[in-house]
Design a protein that fits this description.
Blueprint lengths: L1 H33 L7 H19 L5 H8 L5 E2 L4 E5 L3 E11 L2 E10 L4 E7 L14 E7 L10 E7 L2 E8 L4 E7 L5 E8 L9 E9 L23 E5 L1
Antiparallel strand pairs: 1-11, 2-5, 3-4, 3-12, 4-11, 5-10, 6-9, 6-11, 7-8, 7-10
Helix pairs in contact: 1-2, 2-3
């Protein structure tokens, strides 16, 4: 009877692991619909799901190994930068909204913009909780992709500067119709600040749009900034449910 009881208990544990996997898959599908810019993490999420399935089955029969436990402990996923603890600064605006814009005669989906106006706008994000500020290494890299619209051709350029823990790390000058992608090492950083300053005094600078802002537990490859300059300006779509930060 004792042997039968152990077998039944093992199968119940396995069924619980499968039920958990189904729940995770449903959550991933929902997350894709709500935050499509996190598709970078699909493979990593699926790897974690497989680890949960195997782990549940092995644990149910008492076969868990130190290697499997290590794999489960190291599970991680990309995180949208602006979903961390963020505050906006400056006389300009930082606003989250989903909007399709044309840059270099190509359409990109933006999820946040910084509008410096005639001065500046910035956003600062704490990427690690206060209680874990000494636990470096949670994220290895930050991928940023941003630009200005084609039909803002009358605007002066924006100067975009990225700070890690208050230290200036990267700076780019962006003109209308241009887009830049940056990959930054944030393995030792707790805070990320992005500052957009209008390059011309007494003139109005148009918005800077962000198409990607992903914190990853893995290193992204080195990315050379790309720039496109359009001659014409396609139409943009209407924004969805804007949210001030």
């Amino acid at each position: 009877m004792a042997a039968v009881s152990r077998i039944v208990t093992g199968w119940i544990s396995t069924l619980k692991a499968i039920a958990l996997a189904v729940t995770v898959v449903a959550g991933i599908r929902y997350h894709k619909k709500v935050k499509p810019y996190l598709l970078v993490g699909d493979a990593m999420q699926k790897t974690g799901l497989i680890a949960q399935l195997i782990g549940g089955a092995m644990l149910s029969f008492g076969l868990a190994s130190p290697l499997l436990l290590e794999v489960q402990a190291q599970e991680a996923r990309p995180v949208y930068l602006f979903d961390t603890q963020c505050v906006s600064n400056g006389p300009g605006r930082a606003r989250e909204e989903t909007l399709d814009v044309a840059v270099g005669r190509k359409v990109y989906r933006s999820y946040l913009f910084l509008g410096p106006g005639s001065r500046e706008a910035s956003i600062t994000c704490r990427i690690l909780p206060e209680e874990r500020e000494d636990a470096t290494g949670a994220f290895q890299s930050l991928l940023l992709d941003f630009g200005m619209r084609d039909n803002d051709r009358g605007s002066p350029p924006n100067v975009v500067t990225v700070y890690l823990d208050g230290v200036r790390t990267a700076s780019e000058t962006i003109r209308p119709g241009e887009k830049v992608m940056l990959s930054l090492n944030v393995s030792e950083a707790n805070n990320v600040a992005i500052e957009t300053v209008c390059s011309a005094q007494n003139r109005y600078c148009d918005r800077l749009y962000f198409f990607e802002a992903t914190l990853s537990p893995d290193q992204f490859p080195l990315i050379v900034p790309e720039t496109d300059s359009p001659d014409a300006a396609p139409e943009e779509s209407e924004p969805d449910s804007p949210r001030e930060i």
